[in-house]
Amino acid sequence: MEITDKDIEHLAQLSRLTFSESELSSFKGQFQSIINYVNQLQSVDTNNVKDFTIIKTLDELRIDESRESLSNELVTMNAKNKSKGAFKVPTVVE
Amino acid sequence: MIIEKSLLEVSEILKKGEISSKELTLECINRAKETSKYNALHEICENSAIKQAENIDKRRKAGESLQVLAGIPIVLKDIISYTESYTTCSSKFLKDYRSPYDATVTKKLLENGAVILGKANMDEFAMGSSTETCAFGVVHNPRNFDYVPGGSSGGSATTVALNQCFGALGTDTGGSIRQPSSFCGVVGLKPTYGTVSRYGVIAFASSLDQVGPITKTVKDNAIMLDAILGEDKNEFTSTSNTLDLKNCFKDSIKGLKIGIAKEFFEMGMDPEIQKSLDEVISFFKENGAIIIDVSLPNIKQALAVYYVLSSAECASNLARFDGIKYGTAPEKYEDLIDFYYKARTEGFGSEVKRRIMLGNFVLSSGYFDAYYNKAKRVQNLIIDEFNKAYEKCDVIISPTAPTSAFKIGEKINDPLQMYLNDIYTVPVNIARLPGLSVPFGLSKGMPIGLQLIGQKMSEGTLYNIGDFMERHFNKGGIR
After folding, report:
1. Does B378 sit within 8 Å of A17, measured CB to CB?
2. Which neighbouring-strand residues pair with B119?
3. Torsion angle (degrees, nearest 10) of CA B105, B190, B185, B270
4. Do A41 and B374 touch (CB under 8 A)?
5. Residue B308: CB partners within 8 Å, gap ≥ 6?
6. Which of B119, B241, B316, B350 counts the highest number of beta carbons within 10 A?
7. Residues forming beta bridges with residue B211, ordered by sequence position
8. Is residue B288 part of a domain?
9. Domain count, chain A
């Protein structure tokens, strides 16, 4: 399949990333060659194969009790914007 | 020189009291500063390391019987959380990030008395095979400054090879411990998935990531693995199976069945590596091992499977990097969505962006079944093929990488060529098996590693073969 500018723009939006014009053009070529390589998977017959899933069964659930956790100060120590022990974000709802 | 000793040797020297841990730590700090131009370390934790060393010296003086690792300087890849340092993942996004807690592996090393010397540079978020995507400059190969050390744990392999420390931890998602170990002439192990806790290790592709040691010798590697392994209630994928390494070194490989998969030879191997491989096969035969042909027909699909699955998981794991709770935050923005765009666009480097985009592509509606589900099914085929092969043999061997180290800048603009470096290592992650890289020769004057691939939880067997090779096989000038 051919990757179009529109595909890249859509993926950039899903990824919450912006690219300059020059980045976009070199990126498109690289992306196309990776997709072409990955397409070799389509030639493998997997009709009778199940998906590989990791399911770890829990013999017993842990007791639902409160445990010691990180302090508010530690949890928020890396935030650039904070207020009264909370993370501060731009207004979402007016 | 003391810094050239192995971890095991230096542990004996400390025990005898010929040197204190503080003196040893200062030697390592000096060495790290003298050789800083290689850029192996992002940070030296000088104050905390000296404090840890003094504490061990005090305990030793008081007559306490201490662990093998006690008082020995060790380096952590900068993806592993440690409260005494930054944890940057070699990304601009996390350049100021300090973890509020220690990773389980960090805790375990400290409980074993290790001195945490510093943090090693890496490919950004462990995405790369050359440590050229590190946001804080490229790391140079310890044997030739113009060459890459491999990646993504390039700083960890380099710091060990330069004798800045006696062992380092790396992480391996598709070869990131084994390939740099091969390029730098050191020993690296990717343990069986689930053996070592990933708690506090920043996630790249959670179903493939595993922490493991990089060391000067095979025995040193076993000492470090023994210290960090074990079930962790904080980590859902850690296994309760225990790995016993106590009697794994037998100094004999008699009767061991060593498998050779013809498909590995069809992948384009450097002629000098092929020659070393023939030599090591003869060596195994002369010493009583039995060479067995096995077949892994879908192994050539492993790299494509890897790029689909690892990118999908990367896109999911890195979605949480929004600049709100930690990391780069833009000064100016229009609204919350714009804030995310700016934080991520400024914070991530181009390889990380490429993988996030690829991941979102294979997960997006219309492509999910053709790529992600297809890759999961082919993963199952590959696992079955390994299981069948292990009905006939104990281990499978291959080179760790198709070539020795390449020049800085040679492959950075061609991602696919870069990815092809991992062609021998990714199948091991896909099948969740252990893989050990042991130096076994030179190609174009640079080190190459032999990869020993074992069944799940067979690290002891891999260590035994690796140690036997290290003692008795002529490796062409490698330590």
Report:
1. no
2. B43, B76
3. -160
4. yes
5. A38, A41, B362, B371, B372, B374, B375
6. B119
7. B171
8. no
9. 1
Percent of chain B exceeding pLDDT 70 equals 99
pLDDT of residue B242: 82
A37 domain-assigned: yes
Counting every residue written for chain B, the total comes to 479
Q: What is the DSSP letter of B299?
A: G
CA nearest to B330 within chain A: A80
Q: What is the distance between the alpha carbons of residues A39 and B318, in angstroms, rounded to a whole number?
A: 25
Cα separation, B436 vs B216, in Å, equals: 13
Mutate to test the interface with B, among A5, A15, A51, A63 (most CBs of B within 10 A): A15
Say if residues B11 and B35 touch (Cβ distance below 8 Å): no
Contacts (Cβ under 8 Å, ≥6 apart) of A74: B100, B101
pLDDT for A53 equals 66
Q: What is the CATH number of the domain that holds B202?
A: 3.90.1300.10
A20 and chain B in contact, CB less than 8 A = no
Residue for token digits 């978020």? B125
Q: What is the pLDDT, as a whole number, of residue A26?
A: 85
Q: Are B356 and A15 in contact (CB < 8 Å)?
A: yes
**pLDDT tens column, A17-62:** 999 888 888 888 888 999 999 999 999 999 988 766 665 666 667 7
CA distance linking residue B297 with residue B383, whole number of Å: 11
CB contact under 8 A, A16 and B304: no
pLDDT, position A56: 60
Please answer yes or no on whether B324 and A79 come within 8 Å at the CB atom.
Answer: yes
Whether the CB of A22 is below 8 Å from some CB of chain B: the reply is no
* Segments of chain B scoring below 50 in pLDDT: 476-479
SS3 B416: helix
pLDDT of residue A57: 62
| A67 assigned to some structural domain | no
Nearest-5° Cα angle at B137, B407 to B311: 80
Task: Record the tokens describing residue B60, joined without a space.
Answer: 């030793």
CA of B325 vs chain A CAs: smallest distance (Å): 5
**Who contacts B121 (Cβ-Cβ below 8 Å, separation ≥6)?**
B39, B40, B41, B42, B78, B90, B131, B134, B136, B137, B139, B154, B155
Contacts of A14 in chain B (CB under 8 A): 360, 364
What's the token pair of residue B108?
């375990």
Q: Is residue A11 part of a domain?
A: yes
Q: Provide the pLDDT for residue A59.
A: 66
In a domain, A92, yes or no: no
Q: What are the chain B neighbours of A8 within 8 Å (beta carbons)?
A: 357
| DSSP result, B336-356 | HHHHHHHHHHHHS-HHHHHHH
> What number is the ipTM of this complex?
0.92
The reply to whether B295 falls in a domain is no
Bridge partners of B452, per DSSP, are B397, B436
CB-based contacts of B432: which residues, under 8 Å, 6+ apart?
A: B192, B193, B194, B383, B456
Q: How far apart are alpha carbons B294 and A19 in whole angstroms?
A: 47
Range of the domain at A38: 5-43
| Number of structural domains in chain B | 1
Domain that holds residue B37: 2-228
What residues of B are annotated to the active site? 77, 152, 176
